[in-house]
Write a structure and sequence with these properties.
Elements lengths: L1 E6 L3 E6 L1 H5 L8 E6 L1 H12 L3 E9 L3 H12 L2 E8 L7 E6 L5 E6 L14 H8 L3 E5 H6 L5 H13 L3 E5 L10 H14 L2 E2 L3 H8 L4 H8 L6 E4 L6 E5 L2 E5 L13 H14 L4 H15 L9 H12 L1
Parallel strand pairs: 1-4, 1-8, 2-6, 4-5, 8-9, 9-10, 10-11
Antiparallel strand pairs: 2-3, 6-7, 11-12, 12-13
The protein binds adenosine-5'-diphosphate.
The site of adenosine-5'-diphosphate has 19 residues, from helix 10 and helix 11.
């Protein structure tokens, strides 16, 4: 079985339940509590789409009840947490999503002191040895942003060791301005990430704010000097552009009509796409998997669609 390691943060998610909240008479809110985080979402959709892959989460949590519940949640999704470390003093980060009457969403975060930020302090030679036996190491711009500035050198050294051991390095930039000290810092880290990645899955959205790039062709030109072996450029409902072995192709996406929440469009695309590639499917086949999965996910609320509903979709549409 192939072993895929995803590196990053999982947070506690709170979402106001509008119907139940509307029924309250004392100005209180009813909140639904779940768990999510970009790379974890990717791992979950990969595992749900391709059960034959061992997906592992690499992160740090605490020893509190939410951390325990998160581990139980990983078990339910068959995400292995052998490399999810336990901080003695810290807890997971938290975010809340509020949706107003026009559908506009507001995200509020409490993550500055999250255990996941300390993850590099737990990664020793034994952990790197385990990771080096894996087939793929996946990280995002969010994973990079949350680790402490002083830990970045250690992170890049780890990536270098994994690459030397033959692990495929995969990067999705997922730019979140507020997580970085300055845009220049994000650019410097992204450019380092592109230069070491075998596979990159950038979205045009991420590059608009940071680099003023607003179309797939310019993003493709931006990526060219980094010699990424396999490049997949996502652009919402617009064409996906791919590059592999000197061949550049474009793939049409069928836009879905009933979009209710685009929160993990890119994450679910990545999970199904990478799962397909790990299973030896072609770029075209993998993009079909990725775009079908993402198209389904954005027609449902929340980053992670109910498991039974998603599994039913996999059986009917992806098998
Ligand atoms: P990100 O979350 O990284 O910004 P995108 O918005 O670019 O991701 O979307 C990722 C993928 O999700 C797209 O490549 C496409 O396959 C799918 N997708 C996004 N929006 C739509 C849509 N409106 N209709 C159908 N598929 C979509």
């Amino acid at each position: 079985m192939k072993n895929i390691y995803v590196f990053g943060e999982c947070m506690v998610e709170l979402r106001a339940d509008q119907e139940l909240t509307a029924a309250q008479t004392d100005n209180s809110k009813v909140l639904k509590q779940s768990f999510a985080g970009d790379v974890l979402n990717t791992a979950i959709y990969m595992k749900r789409t391709f059960a034959n892959i061992n997906t592992h989460f690499l992160s740090a949590l605490g020893k509190d009840k939410f951390s325990d519940d998160m581990r139980t949640f990983f078990d339910g999704e068959e995400i292995q947490h052998d490399l999810v470390f336990s901080s003695e003093t810290k807890m997971p980060g938290l975010y809340a999503i509020e949706t107003d009457s026009t559908g506009e969403r507001t995200f509020t975060y409490w993550r500055d002191n999250a255990a996941a930020k300390d993850v590099m302090s737990f990664i020793d030679d034994a952990a790197i040895e385990t990771l080096a036996k894996g087939d793929m190491f996946f990280f995002s711009g969010i994973s990079l942003a949350i680790i402490h500035n002083e830990d970045r050198a250690q992170f890049w050294l780890m990536v270098e060791k994994l690459q030397q051991a033959g692990v495929q390095i995969v990067f999705d930039p997922n730019y979140r301005a507020r997580l970085w000290d300055t845009p220049e810092q994000a650019k410097e880290q992204f450019e380092k990430a592109f230069s070491v990645s075998d596979v990159a899955l950038p979205g045009v959205d991420d590059f608009e704010q940071l680099y003023n790039i607003d179309n797939a062709k310019d993003l493709y030109d931006f990526c060219a000097p980094y010699n990424v072996k396999e490049l997949i450029i996502k652009n919402g409902p617009a064409t996906v552009l791919s590059y592999l072995d000197g061949v550049c192709e474009q793939f049409e996406i069928t836009p879905v009509k009933n979009v209710v929440d685009t929160t993990s469009a890119g994450d679910s695309f990545n999970g199904a796409y990478l799962g397909a590639r790990v299973n030896g499917l072609s770029i075209a086949e993998a993009i079909t998997f990725g775009s079908k999965a993402a198209g389904f996910v954005i027609q449902h609320k929340g980053a992670i669609v109910d498991k039974a509903i998603f599994n039913d979709f996999v059986e009917k549409e992806l098998r």
